[in-house]
Amino acid sequence: MLRVTQPVKTDRLLLRPFQLDDLDALHDIESRPEVALYEYWGPRTREESAEALSRKAAQNGTAAEGEWLGLVICLADTGELIGDVSLKWASEKWRQGELGYVLSPDHQGRGYATEAAKAVLRLGFHEFALRRIQAGADARNTASIKVMERLGMRREAHFRGCAFVKDEWCDEVIYALLDTEFRP
């Protein structure tokens, strides 16, 4: 079981488990077309955000193999929820994980996604003893690709037309990092 018992603090951020009272801020992010553009979902209705939040809050900072450990990203100085970051425990046997993140457009371009993702990579490699963590993105999502590259992840694959999302075939890129390559 992956478990975050205390909020994770970085220089500017606080990462903590989802709470039901995060709905307004979470829905503000998930309802935006520019946020959902490269996601398999959305833009989400308030009811869809509430349903997703209910599942995430029920996990309370834990994940079993095959599940996502989700944390909200809050500004440390104000507590404002600006996104979320997650780590999937893909395989216990092979010590594999997968990274994901979503950030409000109001807070993009300031290094917050990189800072939050780096903290989750540290959790994955140092706390949970994962050996390899990968992340994927729509090949057109240059902002997400830049985050993965800033994290020191290497591009391992470019799958052409591999996913049918929102009525079109999309390319996906996969980046990865080994525990021996991670530079906190």
UniProtKB/TrEMBL annotation:
Gene3D superfamilies: 3.40.630.30. It comes from the Bacteria. InterPro entries: Acyl_CoA_acyltransferase, GNAT_dom, N-acetyltransferase. Residues 13-180 form the N-acetyltransferase domain. SUPFAM superfamilies: Acyl-CoA N-acyltransferases (Nat). This is GNAT family protein. It comes from Fodinicola feengrottensis. The lineage of its organism: Bacteria, Bacillati, Actinomycetota, Actinomycetes, Mycobacteriales.
